[in-house]
Amino acid sequence: MLYRSCFHSNLKNIIRNNEVFRKYSVIAAVLEKPNVGNVTEIKGWVKNLRKQKDLIFADISDGSCAKKLQIVIPKNLTTDSLTYGSSVHVTGKLSKSPRGQLELVADGVKVLGTCVVLDGFPFNPRTIHPPEYTRQYLHLRSRTNYTSAILRIRSAVTKHIYDYFAANNYTNVHTPILTSNDCEGAGEVFKIQPDNEETVKAMMQEGKDRDSVYFGSKTFLTVSGQLHLEAVCRGMGNVYTFGPTFRAENSRSRLHLSEFYMLEAELAFCETLDQLQGAIEDLLKYVFIATRNTNEADLFLIDKENKAPSWVTKEFVTLTYDEARQILQKKGSALTDEGINKEQELTLVEHCGGVPVFVVKWPKDMKSFYMKESTEDSTKVDALDLLTPITGEVVGGSLREDNYEKLKSKLPSERLNWYLELRKFGNIPTGGYGLGLERLLQVLCNVNNIKDTLPFPRWPHNCDM
Amino acid sequence: MLYRSCFHSNLKNIIRNNEVFRKYSVIAAVLEKPNVGNVTEIKGWVKNLRKQKDLIFADISDGSCAKKLQIVIPKNLTTDSLTYGSSVHVTGKLSKSPRGQLELVADGVKVLGTCVVLDGFPFNPRTIHPPEYTRQYLHLRSRTNYTSAILRIRSAVTKHIYDYFAANNYTNVHTPILTSNDCEGAGEVFKIQPDNEETVKAMMQEGKDRDSVYFGSKTFLTVSGQLHLEAVCRGMGNVYTFGPTFRAENSRSRLHLSEFYMLEAELAFCETLDQLQGAIEDLLKYVFIATRNTNEADLFLIDKENKAPSWVTKEFVTLTYDEARQILQKKGSALTDEGINKEQELTLVEHCGGVPVFVVKWPKDMKSFYMKESTEDSTKVDALDLLTPITGEVVGGSLREDNYEKLKSKLPSERLNWYLELRKFGNIPTGGYGLGLERLLQVLCNVNNIKDTLPFPRWPHNCDM
Questions:
Q1: Across the interface, do B194 and A199 touch by the CB < 8 Å criterion?
Q2: Which residues cross the membrane (chains A, B) (predicted)?
Q3: CB-based contact B436:B223 (threshold 8 Å)
Q4: Within A207-339, where are the H helices?
């Protein structure tokens, strides 16, 4: 592997080639720069076996990429333990098959770990197991093509996100998971306690209950790092956070999880929704195109029909909330005080030709206290939702109320005085957004159920492993 | 900003220059490629003011880098609200001062947010506030040089870690925070519950208590993603996870937090401690050197004496546990059954000339059930701790027991049958390690107290914001 770094060139001498530690080659590297004629060692799992008279052909995957490497094994080198699912160490010479395909002609095959399907291995060769089936075997499902492809894409998307923000001078901020801010009832939250009774007893203070014994106040799992980001933004400029977020809702839909990854960015000196929309649109197009470049074969493994959506070269649509209401009304679908429901979100995207739609300028009563009142209409806030095919909303964002007095009048609790105080000293206008990684992956990979976009999904009554 | 991407060149056309959204330049970009004579707009905070007869000199920081940009302001352009801590929008022309320093000669200065120190702003110009003081103002301390420098370094280290693993073909895996695995009593854990009583009532089932009403079993915050990583490793090869981890210990030392970031990697087909040590040493040296290249000015802001440690070009020392015991015994410091304490760790590092020390081959009884029994001595396991100056242990790791029967005999609970089953089908030898990000930052930045290495530290009785 070449080290693809953008740092000073002297670093290349420091980075030892990890193959020194490995003493074998990963298949992604072999396929990237095939050296036909080279003696090569690979390690991986048997995905497929085809037996001929004197030869056995095996497709080996080591998880490093979507593609398998074909191994040609003389029959005298094989044993009965060389089966589908077994792990192997193969040495041989890289060659081209008569059809021009790269293959490894083995001169040594060692089975490292056997796999007897009849002993309870839940997967079968040449079988596409439906996601609902593999989801029952969370500890083994990364051995299937479908799950391993999604996990590689998830890893790549994560890397693209870090690359994008680094290139654009954002600072990555690790906002906390544990917080004394319960989101003011805006979302359902989990609370935490030490599990050990001894610890609870040792830390108990008069007037404190079990919920506040450890930290001195009731403590929750974060539902958003936004307020913390806003604090750091007012010293460091553009910032983002990317990590786990929690909802204690009793919701089992194909779009909800109890634990999910959220990307949140806060843009310093952001004064208009237009600037915020530009930043979101830019990020999304970047991630989609970069991932198609790096993981085309994985996308194909998941969905042979998966094509780059037409909208990556188009401008996203912008509708005001009032315009969206009128469009839906004409289609006989009235909005309630709850806002736009999932079906209506998807209707709006379809109405706009399948291109993502920003819905902007929302009624103030529907949105959070920190959103900035629109200058032209005090019943509205400068908020946005971005709607896409498959999932509907994937991004929510707003300009933040930067007027000290207006914010003070809307502050839901004294415990947020620190948040108000951010506006008192060297205040700046900011805006920001939150993007759900799993929903983005649903759109990118055309995956119907959100539970298949992450390795260990958690939802009500399900927290295996 | 040039987009420093390693992807296909056609991406450069897709990435719009974010300055389009910003309509101003970040100082890091201005300093990277100074265009003397150019009309330039910047936005940031006043860090310093020097008044002369007809001119005012202001140092402006926007948080994008350690360096400030000097602004030269004709007196007629300034107002009383231009004070230390205020936020400003400055337009002007980039010039060189008589001394050759880059400066912005202002033709427009707008104060965006005032800052009246006497109104309660806790920081003063030209003052180095001690970390214990700024820690009282978590929401404002990113406005200080010290904290902002550490946060930029933390962000850079995070990026270097992602770059390193991507370049070496590891897949990033988001292991879960919520888990039904309580780590078998190995560490003190937090448990979670929904906070909302209505949710609890609606989800209550017969025979379930409050702790298990939501997920169907008692659920904890993770203390390690290792077991989950091992599952994914057996389908995808080399994997890593990097995120928040929790300990419900009642510990208030300068080295402990209740929430901290841990990097954990699992190496497929890893058969020797030597391979594992090589991978750890390589990563650490890479991160140290890369960070010194990208954040030299930040390191200097924190500690003017900060020098690259001599060990980045040396091989790390390896001692067996027995050798370490003998060395300490000669120094009159006997080991107990608890292992090596903090003071002893630091003594060992000093004994080895300040170079990081791997202590390997630990007594089996001191270590976890999943660690691999040493082939040459069944009373030992193939485990390692890496000790460094300042913090002592920063990395712990081991080869994993890959023998099905041996692991079965040591398995602490039937609930881990899934973990045992990983060894049943296509098993491979693996090894892995966990690295504490905050301790790494302490070593890198020479920071005594771990609470100053992250934006929002959580420790007993402290979970502000």
A1: no
A2: none
A3: no
A4: 226-236, 273-294, 296-302, 321-330
pLDDT tens-digit series, residues B62-72 = 999 999 999 99
Per-block mean pLDDT, blocks of 10 residues, chain A (465 long):
32 48 86 93 96 95 97 93 97 95 96 94 92 96 96 98 96 97 76 93 87 94 97 98 96 94 98 95 95 94 81 92 97 91 97 96 95 96 97 98 96 94 97 98 95 98 93
d(CA B17, CA A279): 10
Domain A146-177+222-452 belongs in CATH node 3.30.930.10: yes
Q: Which two tokens stand for residue B397?
A: 């790791």
Q: Which of B447, B415, B11, B425 is nearest to B219 (CA)?
A: B415
Collapsed DSSP state (helix, strand, coil) of residue A349: helix
**Dist. CA B427–CA A83, nearest whole Å:** 13
d(CA A60, CA B433): 27
Q: Residue B261's closest chain A neighbor by CA?
A: A174
Provide the CATH number for the domain formed by A11-124 in this structure. 2.40.50.140
The alpha carbon of residue B97 is apart from the nearest alpha carbon of chain A, in Å, by 26
Is A6's CB within 8 Å of B6's CB?
A: yes
**Residues with Cβ within 8 Å of residue B59, at least 6 apart in sequence:** B46, B47, B48, B49, B68, B69, B70, B71
On whether any CB of chain A is under 8 Å from the CB of B102, the answer is no
| E-only strand ranges, B130-246 | 171-172, 178-179, 190-194, 220-221, 239-246
- CA of A458 to nearest chain B CA: how many angstroms apart? 8
Q: Give domain limits for chain B.
A: 11-126, 146-177+222-452
Q: Tell whether A87 lies on the interface with B, counting CB pairs under 8 A.
A: yes
- The verdict on a CB contact (< 8 Å) between A175 and B269 is no
| Contact partners, residue B234, CB within 8 Å, separation at least 6 | A142, A143, B268, B422, B426, B427, B428, B430
Q: With an 8 Å Cβ cutoff, are A426 and B248 in contact?
A: no
- Inter-chain contacts counted by CB atoms under 8 A, chains A and B: 442
Single-letter amino acid, residue B294: T
Backbone angles phi, psi at B370, to 5 degrees: -85, 0
Nearest to A221 by CA among B222, B67, B442, B232: B222
Is the CB of A200 inside 8 Å of chain B's CB atoms?
no
**A11-124 and A146-177+222-452 share one fold:** no
A176 contacts B458? CB cut-off 8 A: yes
A153–B contact, CB cutoff 8 A? no
Q: Mutation target for B interface from A138, A456, A459, A462: give the one with most B CBs within 10 A.
A: A456
Q: Which CATH superfamily is domain B11-126 in?
A: Nucleic acid-binding proteins (2.40.50.140)
